[in-house]
Amino acid sequence: MCGAVRYEVRGPLSPAHACHCGQCRRQSGHFIVATSARRADFILAKDRGLRWYRSSDFAKRGFCGECGSVLFWDDGGDEISINAGGLDQPTGLAVTKHIFVDDKADYYDIKDGLPQFAGYDEPMQDA
Description:
Helix content: under 10%
Shape: globular
Order of helices and strands: EEHEEEEEEE
Low-confidence stretches: none
Distance between the termini: 36 Å
Number of helices: 1
Mean pLDDT: 95
Largest sheet: 7 strands, mixed
CATH architecture: Beta Complex
């Protein structure tokens, strides 16, 4: 938002998903929509404001320390997760699924007909 963090993706983005986990909800104020890029295709052009928060034993979350924008989720693997709201438009993305639905907030329903998963890839029993 403020320009203190700038990045480029020079390769394809994964299909977008909506994450309803408690950590994403608490960090963003709602659920987030994210995509990912191969680490080799991700270029961090400006990182003056980039701060990392170790949110679990296996992952950290990147955000701008100057404006507070929620930017990345990184588990150190071959890909980095990028919050779709921070991408320049047009993104060419469409949400394809909902994950961690078992942890979603109680103040909204998911009624778009997309696949829903209890966790990352565990299908919902009654979805």
